[in-house]
Amino acid sequence: MAEILSLPFMRNALIAGLAVSVAAAFIGSFVVARRMAFIGAGIAHSSFAGVVIGLLIGMDPLISAGIFASLTGLSIGFLSRNYRIEEESAVGVFFPFSMALGIILLGFIKGFTPDIMGYLFGDVLLVGKTEILLSILTLVLVTFFFMIFFREMVYSTFDEETSRVLGIKVSLVYYLFLFLSSITIVVSIKVVGIILLSGLLVIPPLSALQFARNMKSYVFLSVFFGILSSAGGLFLSYWLDLPSGATIISVSFFLLLAAGFIRRIFMR
Amino acid sequence: MKALEIKGVWFSYEANVVLKDINFSVEEGELVAILGPNGAGKTTLLKIILGLLKPHRGEVRIFGLPPEKARGIVGYVPQNLSPNRRMPITAETVVLMGAYRGFLKPTGKQTRDEVEEVLKQVGMLSFKNRLFGELSGGQRQRILIARALVRKPKLLILDEPETGLDPSFQEGFYRLILRIKETFGTTVLTVTHDVMAVSQRVSSIACLNRELIAHGRPQEVLTAQNLKCLYGEAAAYFGHGPAPHLVVEEHSGGNS
Question: Looking at the partner chain, which of B88, B94, B97 has a beta carbon nearest the beta carbon of A218?
């Protein structure tokens, strides 16, 4: 353990990994409760075009991905609320389009693009001071959002129509949530990668659902499983020399299996 | 005082006129039903009353206030609520939702006591820590009524409350609504397509089929002529005996 923590790149990965896994667990709890898991995957994949645009124009890919993913997330929300398009269908439009755009633009980048695999599948070696700062900033923003809007999020997730009758600013809360989901997804890219990212959002809350008896315990258990997946995955990836993102998602998957098993055997 | 006034309300979805010049009012303390077949515009009218939709013409007043200013005095029980059944929200939290008074206004001990009180009134106190998704249809309906009641509403609005309830529970459900009305003097407005469910329980009925067909006491408005306008069939209503019943004389393809 001490050996791992003495390595600067592992220390960076651990700090960023823990910060994004906590933020992703907060966001993911409501992604799962709102049955919008596909949106998480859609926004994550749409950030691919943002990454490529960044590499093409010489901008930090994380910033261009952040802008692109936020615009995509908000567009999905806008289309589904104002046009005859279901949320899932809107994702079905943006998901392939942004991947296609990314692949087309990739052809315009001159020379070798070694980073692209790191963005797709995650690479702890890519985590530097900027990523740590962005991860912590995102965690602070997400925590702040849930401290203020927790009741509004719970109520509008449960019953949107009555929430409107009660005077809750449902659309404001929804768009803020989509924006923070997009930001969380983008800052998680270097830890788990675009392809695997929706797993970080969805799997820990599903594990939490096996035991949760109210909304607060659900969110806290999601955070617990998120931290366990992230820390466990990073340590395992170092010891076994495995890709970090894939190991984190695999650990979270086995934790979900274990949680489901424990529930079936001991909590019937 | 008038609990509800609907004055010259028109509404359309694009070119499809759903509500045509609707006018009627409800006195304080009344139990009123809006009756009509599927597609009659009942839910649209309800959404206008709740302030969720704006009428293209006309206006709604709840105790003299426009709907958006009357939110504090209106309780609402929606139809066919279908939240994620796996969402771990307790019955108590669902009822607490009804006590929401605004952004950054936390719920204190007094509110929690009030939640317990309404849960007791609807006979669901022992279920307060149970997950909403694990309750039966009838139990959920009681929790949703408790959520509406915790606001201490002057006007309680129910959207097709009998949907999904078996007949034996329907009776108990309407007994509960009548008790609430008597105890608190609450005005109750229920929307339904089921003549049988409301005809012997309400003080007046507004028959709606995109326009107001009739409004008055059940015996006055539930005529064969009005029912034909509502359901598109020559139907006769009989109010004698232990339960009212509707006799369809000839079928012309409408709802019954």
Answer: B88
